[in-house]
Amino acid sequence: MRQMRKRAGVLAVGAVAALALTACTTGDGDTPGGTADGGAEEVEVDCTDFEQYGDLNGKTITIYAGIVAPEDTPYMTSFEPFEECTGATVDYQADKQFEQQILVRAQAGNTPDIAIVPQPGLLAQLVATGTVVPAPEGVAANVDEFFGEAWKDLGTVDGTFYAAPSGASVKSLVWYSPTQFEENGYEVPETLDDLMALTEQIAADGNNKPWCAGIASGEATGWPLTDWVEDFVLRVGGPDVYDQWVAHEIPFNSEVPTQALDAVGEYLKNPDFVNGGIGDVSTIATTAFQDAGLPIVDGQCSLHRMASFYAANFPEGTEVAEDGDVFAFYLPSEDTSTKPVLGAGEFVVSFADRPEVQALLEFWSTDTWANLKAAASSEETGGGWITANSGLDTANLVNPIDLLSAEILLDPASEFRFDGSDQMPAAVGTGAFWRESTAWITGQSTADTLTKIEAAWP
Questions:
Q1: Which domain of life is it from (predicted)?
Q2: 428 with 245: CB under 8 angstroms?
Q3: Of 85, 115, 82, nearest to 25 (Cα)?
C-alpha cells in the first residue's frame, strides 16, 4: 500500500466517511500509512463507504491530463483513500500538450482509461472518434444530485451523457483594491448601472484611469476580450439567449450580441476609462493579459475584469483578501434579481468500461472526493481549485478568492454558463472570435467585427 500523507483540511460532515476516526487495516494487520520506525504521519481511513467498489487489488487505472506540477499533486492525494481501500493503483500522467495529444491518441486507438478534458468542445471531438464510453449510471446519479442539469448538459453529446464535471472557475469577476475603495469612499456595485456610475466617479476624481486591460496571449491573443463579450451577452440577453447565441441559433451579428459588444465598448473604447498605468486604448491589444491587472497594486488603475485564476499573477507578497491589497467582486447584472455567471471547468471522460475504471469515475463524482480534493489543494498549493459540486464544504477552502468563487457558484440564484468560445466550432471560438475582437479593440467597428465572425461560422 502507498503511504498516505496527513491532510490538515477540514472535511464536510457528508464526506467524513472517507477520512474518519476509524482506521481500516491491510490484510496483515498493518495500518495504512504507518512505518516500522513510526517515521511517517498516518491518516486514518474508514473504508466502509469504499466497499461498494469491490476488491480492486492489483488493478491499475490510468489518468491523462494537462494539469501539471504543482497542481497535479492534490489530484494524486485525493485518490489515495480510494487506492488504500480498494487496492487499486491510480496512475496519473500529466502532459502540457494534453489538448493536442489526447486527440492524436484517440484517433490512433491509444487512449488512457480516463482523461480530464477542459472544454465541452474537445469532449465532442473525442466522442466523434468513437473511443469514448458513456458515463456509468452511478456517475449520472451523482451528477444529478450534486451538480444539476446545466452541468450535466455540458457533459452530454448528442443526447448521451459522457463526462462528469470536476473542477470549475468563475470568470464573472472584477478585481479591485479594497484600500483604494475605502480611502475614496467607493462601494462595490450591485448592478451594471452602479458599475458605470462607479467608473465615471473614478474617472472624475482624476487619481487614475478606472480600468486596466490587456488581451495579448501569443497565438491566443483576443481571448480575454471574448470573455468580456460573453459576460455581457449573458447580462443583456439572459442565459436562454446566450445559449442560442453559442449554438448559433441566432446570428453572431444579431441584436443582443451587437448590444453586448457596444456595452463592452462603453468601457474599453472610452479613452477616459482605460488603460490605467499602461497607456491609451491601443495598448489593450499589446498588453499581456498576465500583466494587465498589476497596475491595481500600484494604484494606477482601479478595476480589472478577469477570472478567478488571475490571483496567481499578482506579485509575491500581495495579499489577496477582502481587506487586503487586492480582491474581486462579482460582475453585476442589470438588476439584483438575476445572477448570470460565466465560467469554465473540467470534465472527466472515460475510454474504458472495466469495473475498476467505473468505480473510480463514480468515486470522483461524489461530494466525498470533492472535499478531499479541496482540502488537498488548500494544503498543498494554497488553494486555486473549486468545484460546482453542491456537497462542497467551504471550510475546506483557505484561499479568499476560492471562497468568493465557490459562494458565487453555489448560490442557488446563480445561472451558470460555460465559456462560449470554448463551445463554438474552432473556426469561430478560437479563430474569428479572437481575431476580430482584437481588430475591434484597435478600431474596427462593431458591425464589421460581428459580421466577419458570423461569416466564419462553418
A1: Bacteria
A2: no
A3: 85
Q: What is the pTM of this model?
A: 0.87
As assigned by CATH, the class of the 13-170+344-416 domain is alpha beta
Residue 29 has, within 13 A of its CA and on its CB side, a CA count of: 1
| Residue 203, φ and ψ in degrees, nearest 5 | -60, -40
Q: Could you give the C-alpha distances from 156 to 124, 161, 416, in angstroms and in order?
A: 9, 4, 16
Q: Tell me the pLDDT tens digit for each residue of 156-190.
A: 999 999 999 999 999 999 999 999 999 999 999 99
Which of 231, 344, 211, 218 has its CA nearest to residue 289?
Answer: 218
Q: Which CATH superfamily is domain 173-342+423-456 in?
A: Periplasmic binding protein-like II (3.40.190.10)
Q: Is the pLDDT of residue 34 over 90?
A: no
Between 15-19, 50-54, 151-155, the lowest mean confidence (pLDDT) is in 15-19
Q: What is the pLDDT of residues 339-351, one digit of tens each?
A: 999 999 999 999 9
Task: Answer whether 383's CB lies under 8 Å from 403's CB.
Answer: no
Domain spans of the chain, in order of start: 13-170+344-416, 173-342+423-456
Distances (CA, A) of 1 to 50, 404, 448: 16, 38, 62
Q: Does residue 36 register a pLDDT over 60?
A: no
Q: How far are the Cα atoms of 285, 299, 350 from residue 377, in angstroms, in the given order? A: 34, 31, 24
Provide CB contacts within 8 A for 317, sequence distance 6+. Answer: none
